[in-house]
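Give me the 3D structure for Aminotransferase.
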Amino acid sequence: MFSQLQPVATDPILGLMAAYQQDPNPHKIDLGVGVYKDEQGHTAVLKCVKKAEALRLAKEDSKTYIGMAGDLNFNQHIEQLAFGKEHPALLAGRLTTAHTPGGTGALRVAAEFIKRANPSATIWVTTPTWANHISLFQAAGLTVKEYSYYDYNSKGLLEEQMFAELAHVEPGDVVLLHACCHNPSGLDLTFAQWQRFTQLAKERGFTPLVDMAYQGFGVGLDEDTAGLRHLAAEVPELILCSSCSKNFGLYRERIGACTLLTEHSKAAETARSVLLSVVRSIYSMPPAHGAIIVSHILDSQELTALWHQELAEMRNRINDYRQLIVDKFKAEGIVQDFSFITRQHGMFSFLGINKAQIDRLRDEFSIYMVGSSRVSIAGLNHSNIDYFAKSVATVLK
Ligand code: PMP
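Predicted structure for Aminotransferase (397 residues):
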């Protein structure tokens, strides 16, 4: 049977990572991979996580099954983190959450849930979007369509096109939005655009699915959820997929959550039973470790304060480098306007350079970025930013 299989092409980012690792150039820079790196180019374990892990080791007294919804304490914390403790939807008992294996697990659970609710649903995603959105929803059997989002010319939002296209989305379909730090463009909706989206969702009756993989990486923990909170206060139903990979640095522990907002608390009970049955049929129960670490951090004022500080350090470093890129490019005599980088948020922006320039950066200067010119800003640090700016200036000449 296996002899019938055809090989599947590897993800271009993985190929890029392999090429980077084999490159002997001591000045090489990896701007491909979407993980946070510090000034030393290292993805360190957060101090608050180390402390919570020590606590877990001391306190854990059983390895029995955790249940399909996962860690209930974590679920409560993640709802409060996303919506704020006083959000009317939370106070009304309209939210229900299952912790999942990463944000990807949350999206897959969401996809299966959507299929149960409406087997013929189409899910609409931004052009462009995180590539895995498309393959993941298709693998779950949903129809995926795209709507206009990033304008490669103005580096802003294709606002009128986006809203004109979304005005045709059918009730029963799902529209995916990135809560903040849009991957791959870094371009987020303004609050006014979230309001406009909210109005349209109410008029058309489609269901929003908000993917929040970078809460706290943009402007701040609360600021990054302003659009989501507004939307959730207005629409009857919504799905939120969140991830603790980036903001808690828990990538390999695989911790995220799928939260449903239902029209009223009774509907939340029904939705929860379906959600848990979806979980049961895919992986039965999530792994516990990441959720308990996050719970320990958020249970403790001291650890929460430390987490806020460490998260701010990561966010500020990225935002400082957004400014530094623009300043260094100017200092190198680059005349093109790159100021859009400082208006975008999170780990990524498109440099907006062409394929020949991307190839030259890789082949002549050992600077690696994906073919779309998406750069992962956290790959830059004090020891490589000048080399990066000089190299970009050379290929732009
Ligand atoms: N959504 C988006 C937009 C992402 O960028 C990512 C991670 N790259 C995820 C979801 C999934 O994150 P996780 O590693 O928690 O599965």
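The pocket of 4'-deoxy-4'-aminopyridoxal-5'-phosphate is lined by residues 34, 102-104, 130, 178, 183, 211, 213, 243, 245, 251, 256 (CB under 6 Å). Let me know if you want a second pass.
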